[in-house]
Model the fold of this input.
Amino acid sequence: MTLEREEKDTLVAYRLQGITARTHGGVFGLFGKYFVETGIISKEQNKLYRKLFDLRQSGDYDDWFKVEEEDIVPNLEPVKQFIETIENLIKNSSL
Done:
């Protein structure tokens, strides 16, 4: 099983906090509790994370689902900012 970059970043961020999850729902719950509710990650970035996960899930599992350019292009800059936020969390951790 290979993890995509955002999944790896999320797992690293959880491990920085000493917590783990076994399901996607668990990941979202813990992410919300430890990062969004505490203000470390913005609510907007959390919405983006969930939206992109839903798109990926639909692309992988829904019949006849097609992601269009207009679904992706508006998210490019916010995704870059989200990745930067996660990378900064990792860099500034006390590992």
The chain is about 65% helix and 0% strand.
